[in-house]
Amino acid sequence: MAVQNKKLNLKDKYQYLTRDMGWEPTYQKKKDIFPDEDFEGIKITDWSQWEDPFRLTMDSYWKYQAEKEKKLYAIFDAFAQNNGHQNISDARYVNALKLFLSGVSPLEHAAFQGYAKTGRQFSGTGARVACQMQAIDELRHSQTQQHAMSHYNKHFNGLHDAAHMHDRVWFLSVPKSFFDDARTAGPFEFLTAISFSFEYVLTNLLFVPFMSGAAYNGDMATVTFGFSAQSDEARHMTLGLEVIKFILEQHEDNVPIVQRWIDKWFWRGFRLLSLVSMMMDYMLPNKVMSWSEAWEVYYEQNGGALFKDLERYGIRPPKYQDVANDAKHHLSHQLWTTFYQYSQATSFHTWIPEKEEMDWMSEKYPDTFDKYYRPRYEHLAKEAAAGRRFYNNTLPQLCQVCQVPTLFTEMGAPTKLSHRQLKYEGERYHFCSEACCEIFEHEPEKYIQAWLPVHQIYQGNCEGADVETVVQKYYHINIGEDNFEYLGSPDHKRWLSIKGIKPADEDKNAA
Amino acid sequence: MSVNALYDYKFEAKDKVENFHGMQLLYVYWPDHLMFCAPFALLVQPDMSFRALVDDIIKPATASHPDSARADFLKAQWLLNDEPFTPNAEASLTDNGIDHKSMLTVTTPDLKGMAGVGY
Fold first, then answer.
1. N- or C-end of chain A: fewer Cβ atoms within 10 A?
2. Is there a contact between B38 and A446 if contact means CB atoms under 8 Å apart?
3. What is the pLDDT of residues A371-406, one digit of tens each?
4. Residue-range definition of the domain harbouring residue B85
């Protein structure tokens, strides 16, 4: 008796799981089922050319993810039971986690929503499944990050309401608006923005600093999350490259459209990562590498090779990469002194770097730190010592596109702001740079709606007219606990008591 | 250029002057004083005098800078939206041509910030 072989090979399994989801509709028009597929102008001639990076791992995906999850939570439990927070390098490190939890974890959730929505829009089943699978990964990352960091919430301030803060706090409108911009674009722009420009080109500049930073600073919970996410991130990067090559190979008319998206999303990603630059150079007590070194390795070298490879499709490197390359010498310092002066309105603490840290920066930034930035800290230290710790009590101008205060300087002229402005339909708009201004000019109807935190406060939409009320009531930042200077903060005092340092030493430490 | 959308994509600007309850936005940039990281964003009355703007708003906003006490802003060099501008101290902002979301740039030629690097 002939027995049919019931065991399917990998290819068949994938076929059954994915491609069989594609059928020709009989009583509905394809255009009505996938209404978003064409309007961006991207032409797809043959969806079967999609090489799904998931196809090789699909079979083991569920089993492998479940195993990773089990191990991850066992380590979180052990970390909590052993008071793992006591083994970190210094409590200043926790401020990097506050930034991550309120700035990055909600983006993982936004990515989940974005991929779930985008995946629905493709008539090609391979792309649909790839988006669906990545949506699941992103949701898992958002959850596991929150679990990894939740232990710190029991011992340190500022971690209690990250999702709420993400929707409201002024500097968190930078990451929030980034993803809102991507999610309100069409499906192909979303993939170019997130899968390619962010996950493929720039993700190492986000993940390496935070995860290596965690390792260098004794944070086992976050490191373990990093390991658990690594294989997912590798897959997401593969998808990012596949997406771009697929679109470019489908039709030559796609090239200029994709080029503009690359120009836009490289720049938006670069502006978003300016927050990471200061985290790297200033918020990690044990430094991994400088922002400038990270930019050289992960963008200038790796990105350089990538764009060399894409040349054959007629794609050139992002338009304003020379500005970004030049900015690597200044970015982290300009950002940190900004957050230092607005610490009354942040959910994390800021401080003046210690002497050894400044020497490290002199070494890492030989052409810029001693000349432009060390004098800033010398002045700020003098003021703080005289009891006049500097806070800027006037709100800053924000960029209409990236929503960062317009603090950036001209390429080659680091004492001059690269401010731009224009008029559109009788209304004035202000920008941090030529690149952000150009993004606005392409789609002004989109950016005139920007919810700029400073303007919202002035319109009276944030539960109060003064900064204190807005911070406490609208942002849920507890005044005197979560915000202001690190030295002398409740976090600082708690850390000294964990380490058994007496108040006498505290004075010495603060001096 | 304009947005590529599936429908007639038209929305109100979020920061029209009507939304500020009779007030308007004004930005003030003092070059070479990067201790203030970005231009100030101020909520001002359109009918306030230019002198009041300087004395009651700009002076206090800049007070923490060592150059502030010596700065004579009324005699300084001004730009309004990047164009040369001579303010009339007694006239209102409106009569000075300063409209909603305008930007003033005020340069104090003999005060160049700290450390010779415009801080």
1. N
2. no
3. 999 999 999 999 999 999 999 999 999 999 999 999
4. 22-107
